[in-house]
Write a structure and sequence with these properties.
The protein has 11 helices and no strands. The protein has 236 residues and is mostly helical.
């Protein structure tokens, strides 16, 4: 049941989050051009909704970096990690396809190829792979470090409001450089979906950048889990 929860929760997160991207970016939507604040608030709310729905079923990771980070911090069993990651990736792909179906006419009406890809996956404002890597690593480190700290020290589980607040702070403050994937499934799953759905006049999926929002968050999550275990578990 917990694996189904991760699949469905990640799917819901993608449906809501990618729809926010689409509503802001695509032609002839009511929210076209509404900007970064809407994206940051919307993604935070999307995370809150998904956590609220599935926290008691799966722990509401919805993010491979969170899963490996919690395992590194001894807050989650390593034996369950591969199944969580598979469920998260599958949920992200299915959610992304459903968003394409919903916004299909608006994808067709949009001429900007980068905006079409941007609905699905992240890209840097200034392309510099070392800097982009560090931005994704640091953003994910902050996310997982905050989650581990909340689990270890807070009198109550951080819950949807706490997790949503972390996402909002990261997005509004740190997200403008790379689009803050901070989640390998959130970027790679939709990027895979984008590669095979029949969007009119689309560009390539930019596979040359795709490893950044996958590898950097995984390493950031692992580092945050290790540091969190040392700092919070042993009281250093």
């Amino acid at each position: 049941m917990q694996y189904l929860g991760e699949f469905l929760g990640t799917m819901v997160l993608m449906i809501l989050g990618l729809s926010i991207n689409a509503n802001v970016s695509l032609a002839k939507t009511k929210g076209n051009g509404s900007g970064w604040l809407v994206i940051s608030l919307g993604w935070a709310a999307a995370v809150m909704v998904a956590v609220m729905m599935f926290d008691r079923i799966s722990g509401a990771h919805f993010n491979p970096a969170v899963t490996v980070g919690l395992a590194m911090a001894d807050e989650f069993p390593w034996a369950s990690v591969p199944f969580y990651l598979l469920a998260q990736m599958a949920g992200a792909i299915v959610g992304a396809v459903l968003v394409w179906v919903k916004f299909r006419l608006h994808f067709d009406a949009t001429e900007d190829k980068d905006k079409k890809l941007g609905v699905f996956s992240t890209s840097p404002a200034i392309r510099s792979l070392p800097d982009n890597f560090f931005a994704e690593f640091l953003g994910t480190f902050v996310l997982v470090f905050a989650v581990v700290g909340a689990l270890e020290l807070a009198p109550l589980h951080p819950g949807p409001i706490g997790i949503g607040g972390i996402i909002l702070a990261i997005g509004a403050g740190m997200g403008g450089t790379t689009g803050y994937a901070i989640n390998p499934a959130r970027d790679l799953g939709p990027r895979i979906a984008y590669a095979f759905v029949p969007i009119k006049n689309k560009r390539n999926p930019d596979w040359g950048y795709a490893f950044i929002p996958v590898v950097a968050p995984l390493l950031g999550g692992l580092a945050a889990g290790l540091v969190g275990k040392i700092v919070f578990s042993y009281g250093i």
